[in-house]
Amino acid sequence: MGCAGSTPTKGEENTKKLRKPKPWKHNQPITRTHLKQMRDEFWDTAPHYGGQKEIWDALRAAAEADLDLAQAIVDSAGIIISNADMTLCYDERGAKYELPKYVLSEPTNLVRDS
């Protein structure tokens, strides 16, 4: 409980505005094909580490969407954004969802597939 008047109204508690992740660099240059493989592997295995499959699906859809659509997806799914770049989220039951930067944006050292 907070001070009088400090309790958010229904629907306002999850309204942290999403933003693009900060630029990042993979430990070695990476191709788009390898990045896609890493992303697919993460999304295929993520639900096995806890949380609800529906929330993982919503997080994937949001990660692959533009910012406005991503915001609508997380808001409608009831996902609580702890970090504005979506690297740390929670569902309404308190389950924690950690997303690596490579599923949210491309590295600065992305190279062409040869």
From TrEMBL:
The DC-UbP/UBTD2 N-terminal domain, residue ranges: 15-113
Any Pfam family matching the protein: UBD
Domain of life: Eukaryota
Gene3D superfamilies attached to this UniProt entry: Ub domain-containing protein, DC-UbP/UBTD2, N-terminal domain (1.20.225.20)
Region (Disordered): 1-31
Coiled-coil ranges per UniProt: none
Stated name of the protein: DC-UbP/UBTD2 N-terminal domain-containing protein
